[in-house]
Design goal:
Length: about 325
């Protein structure tokens, strides 16, 4: 895999994205809940088709990014990449409450309908692209490196589920003595909050024009991880407030492949691991290029990380399906 050889300067002369390209990602996100529901009622194969929505959002965000004049449409396409964690976030906050008379789908449909109209109606903008702050990016990366230790331990814990729920719980209890320590846990939560805040700031400052496939991949997976961290952390905190232990039973509760609500967690979990591995590898690629490594080395780094992440994620889901 190689970076596109088209010079950045020549990309601005490309024909602007047409309406069909700009609206296809939000339209796909609009029907995402229907795909999840249909998959839970028919076949896991249909459920797997839901992965096409974030993939389509990624491709569209890259294509729109070749022309810097439609930043809103590009960001909407990036948000479509994060449809799985966004739908889970809405479900966790809206589907089990009685304060307002609507659930996740009742908000999802008008929201994505409006975003489709915004993408279609956007007019070309000649504003110059901005550049992310180097210090902010460095702080974001250093915090991510600290969180990496917890994530690796967390994934090992989930992989233990292949040996059964008892093995998962045994590893979990051992790890909890560390990450639930009164000193460690607040620091970990603060680091997660810092990741979300700095990630959002970096995305706002990101260039409107794609500088390559890996640039688009890093931005899109960053959006996914922001929504995932918001969804997963808030779900765990809500469970703690209700006195629910977020153990193996909580994680694997419900029929993941057949329950209409729980089915949304399958692409949500699967892509979270993939997004984390790919986003981290894209960041390391930038560092490697800055230290004189070749673009081919950086590309191999991302491809290998993606392959390992897909394998690990598939094994974790296999353990959950066995529960």
């Amino acid at each position: 895999m190689k970076e596109a050889s088209v010079p950045i300067a020549s990309r601005s002369t490309a024909s602007p994205p047409n309406h069909a390209l700009r609206v296809i990602a939000p339209l796909a996100a609009l029907v995402y809940p229907a795909i999840i529901w249909l998959g839970s009622r028919t076949s896991p194969i249909v459920l797997a088709i839901s992965l096409a929505v974030p993939v389509l959002g990624l491709v569209v965000s890259y294509r729109i990014g070749l022309d810097a004049r439609f930043p809103r449409a590009r960001r909407i396409a990036q948000l479509a990449v994060a449809a799985p964690p966004m739908f889970s976030l809405f479900g966790g906050w809206l589907d089990f409450q009685h304060a307002i008379p609507t659930g996740s789908v009742g908000v999802w449909i008008p929201l994505w309908s409006a975003l489709t109209l915004v993408a279609a109606a956007e007019r070309p903008s000649a504003g110059p692209p901005s550049a992310p702050g180097r210090r902010l990016a460095m702080a974001h990366g250093l915090t991510a490196a600290a969180i990496l230790l917890f994530v690796v331990a967390h994934l090992i814990n989930h992989l233990a589920g292949l040996l059964g729920g008892d093995a998962h719980v045994a590893v979990m209890h051992t790890l909890r003595t560390i990450y639930r320590h009164p000193v460690v846990e607040p620091v970990l939560l603060a680091a997660v909050a810092f990741q979300i805040a700095t990630g959002g700031a970096l995305l706002r400052r990101a260039r409107a024009r794609s500088t390559g496939r890996f640039d688009a991949l890093q931005a899109a997976t960053g959006v996914y991880l922001m929504l995932f961290l918001l969804s997963h952390t808030s779900a765990v905190l809500r469970a703690h407030l209700r006195g629910v232990d977020t153990n193996w039973a909580w994680l694997s509760g419900g029929e993941l492949l057949t329950d209409p609500w729980s089915a949304r967690l399958v692409p949500y979990y699967f892509l979270a691991v993939v997004a984390f591995g790919v986003h981290g590898a894209c960041g390391l690629r930038v560092v490697a290029l800055g230290h004189g490594r070749s673009p081919a080395f950086g590309a191999r780094l991302v491809v290998i990380a993606a392959a390992i992440s897909v394998l690990v994620s598939a094994l974790i889901l296999a353990g959950l399906f066995r529960a």
